[in-house]
Amino acid sequence: MADRVLAKDCRTDQEEGMKVLFVIGLIVLILGIAAFVVPLPRYDHEGFRAGKFQATLETRHDEKLSPAVGGMMVLAGAAMMIFGRR
Question: Which tens digits make up the pLDDT trace of 1-52?
Fold first, then answer.
């Protein structure tokens, strides 16, 4: 009797772990797809001083992640979702 209860508890913990893996995979998949579309801002600060005077220049560059990074995130997220369903 105790073996049946223990086996049921283990199965429940394993199923919960699989659900967590599925959710993490879904998040990674969504972030991977967003990496192809959404640019990340990067700021550069440049300046100089001449006596009491100071001049600064701030430039903003919008850069997307490498397609290889986005592709790896999509593949990893899909794999986690597949293994999380089992």
Answer: 555 555 555 556 667 778 889 999 999 999 999 999 999 888 888 988 888 8
- Domain range for residue 46? 2-85
Query: What would the DSSP string read from start to end of 4-73?
Result: HHHHHHHHHHHHHHHHHHHHHHHHHHHHHHHHHHPPEEEEEEEEEEETTEEEEEEEEEEEPPPHHHHHHH
For 39-50, what is each residue's pLDDT tens digit?
Answer: 988 888 898 888
As for how many domains the chain has, the answer is 1
pTM score, whole prediction: 0.65
Establish how many alpha carbons lie within 13 A of residue 15's alpha carbon, considering only the half-sphere containing its beta carbon.
6
